[in-house]
Amino acid sequence: MKLSQQLIFFGIVFSIYGLINFYIFRRALFAVPANYKPLFTISFVIVILSFIAGRFLERFSVNVFGDVLIWIGSFWIAFMFYFFLALLVIDLLRLINLVVPFFPAFITHNIEKTKRITALIVLILVTVTVVGGYINTKVIITKTYKMRVFKNAGELKTLNVAMASDIHLGTIIGKSFLNKLVTEINKLNPDIILLAGDIIDEDLAAVIKNNVGEELIRLKSKYGVYAITGNHEYIGGVEDAYKYLVAHGVNVLRDEKIKIDKAFYVVGREDRSIRQFAGKQRKELKDLLSSVDKSFPVILMDHQPFELNEALENNIDLQLSGHTHYGQLWPINFIIEKIYDLSWGYGINGNTHYYVSCGVGGWGPPVRTGSRPEIINFKIKFVGPRK
Question: What is the pLDDT of residues 294-307, one digit of tens each?
Fold first, then answer.
């Protein structure tokens, strides 16, 4: 990404972040007793700057102080989001009340008391939501889909696929979580393991320091582990992420295809972010498939689920994607549903099957309120061409 583009992008992001926090601060300050306002102000500034400071520090050194700042800042993103939503609802009700008064007397009689009670209720509700969302990130579920593919796969009659996406290994999601994920995947006794991008978050240094890749080596399957790049591999430095994954037993397909056991193809596309971060173009799907014998089953991995019709047009049997997180924090999922034709879950068009995963990890806050962390287990049966 060019320097000018970076400045514009981060300028917009920090401006929005700053305005939202200023809005929360000003509204919250009304409910804080006068003698606590200075302490509240200092604490608030430290919290809102912690994520930025922690990410900045980890570029120079991975240490406990930086990790603590990142954890505080990451949780604050979730708190900030739900405080913002709560305040918007409250202010909308206040605005309506100005036009059509409907607040009962016990609310309007003592405004200062009402403010403090309202602040306490909001604090409790938001805290319960965030804590519940954090607990939810720890509970990985496995979804199983049985499907038929109308092609012959040589001598192979069935295929047991384990798929996961958006692990986001880094400071927040580390070795203990990956240990649990690997254990759950291995329980499926898969024939092949497919990781559909964003395996590494942008902080590879934390992954290296904590030897997180040691857990990746534990992944076991008949045909191995295959992955693709996601936008976060590009954000953090795609070449370093690629080398690390390959060194720990993951075959990363970068606009590449491979025929496995003379039975089926796995095709992996570079992430769309290659243009933004590397100034390059990824291959067109039709060019990538030019030497593929499509009479055999073809599984495609493409991190961002845009232009799904391309898979259908190119006779792909199964496309696997991730990226959306299904919003991660409710109700962002409603926006995500408007952006993508398939924002989460299973779909089929003609003979092409699709699955867009909401991910097993997450970016930013270690909180998930709109979905569950998931592993997908596909039980594929090859039944030959339709007669």
Answer: 999 999 999 999 99
